Amino acid sequence: EADIYQTPRYLVIGTGKKITLECSQTMGHDKMYWYQQDPGMELHLIHYSYGVNSTEKGDLSSESTVSRIRTEHFPLTLESARPSHTSQYLCASRTGDQPQHFGDGTRLSIL
Amino acid sequence: AQSVTQLGSHVSVSEGALVLLRCNYSSSVPPYLFWYVQYPNQGLQLLLKYTSAATLVKGINGFEAEFKKSETSFHLTKPSAHMSDAAEYFCAVGVSGTDKLIFGTGTRLQVFP
């Protein structure tokens, strides 16, 4: 069952728009992650958080920003979308030494 | 630095045949290794994980993987493929001292009737 929710699942939007991808988890996990995945490619970590008010950039440089005001919520924002931002974005969470648990992803297409 | 390499971006098998998906890792410390499966239009689901407790790890859906230090491998197998096994499979290694995962490029498994 889905304990980590991503909305929207699909988004097609024009260049220059501000976009927020939502990620919420109901498991009380302290650690949360955002990955970018291009078709047929591996996942690249773009942001992570170890708890409220904690955010770090991942291994892949991204123009997106994140916030962690509440434990359960870890939104990702693009201030001005560009076609190069077209990708799938996956959110994950974990606690302790448990494996990362993934949401179903948001498939973003910028026209 | 740690890394994983998945050999074969596409694997095709007949229903009922053995599934073998290859993963080799590079790590200077004992690694934490994972196999995830991704069905179309979904996120990743954990199949199994290796954390040094046992070299043969059994996962969900009949999959298992064997950790072989001498070969730096963690190949995923299933004795008999089912049509529902068609998906993308990712091998990943936990980065030592962090909570990060490094993923391989994935292997797409096709199962033919």
Question: Would you summarize the structure shown here?
Answer:
The complex is a heterodimer of chains A (111) and B (113). Chain A is mostly beta strands and 111 residues long. Chain A contains no helices and 11 strands.
Provide a descriptive summary of the structure in words.
The complex is a heterodimer of chains A (111) and B (113). With 111 residues, chain A is an all-beta fold. Chain A is built from no helices and eleven strands. Chain B is mainly β. In chain B, the strands form two sheets. In chain B, strands 2, 4, 5, 9, 10 and 11 form a six-stranded mixed beta sheet that branches. In chain B, strands 1-3-8-7-6 form a five-stranded antiparallel beta sheet, with no helix packed on it. Chain B has strands at residues 3-7, 10-14, 19-26, 33-38, 44-50, 56-58, 64-68, 73-78, 87-94, 101-103, 107-112. In chain B, a hairpin with a 5-residue loop joins strand 4 and strand 5 (44-50). At the A-B interface, strand 5, strand 9 and strand 10 of A face strand 5 of B.
Mean pLDDT of chain B: 93
Shape of chain A: globular
Number of helices of chain B: 0
Q: How would you sum up the global shape of chain B?
A: globular
Strand percentage of chain A lies at over 45%
The oligomeric status of these chains comes to: heterodimer
Please give the number of β-strands of chain B: 11
Round the Cα radius of gyration of chain A to an integer and report it.
13 Å
Largest sheet of chain A: 7 strands, mixed
The main β sheet of chain B shows up as: 6 strands, mixed
The unreliable regions of chain B are none
- The helical percent of chain B reads under 10%
Uncertain runs of chain A are none
What amount of the residues of chain B lies in strands? over 45%
Q: Output the number of helix runs of chain A.
A: 0
Compute the gyration radius of chain B: what is it? 13 Å
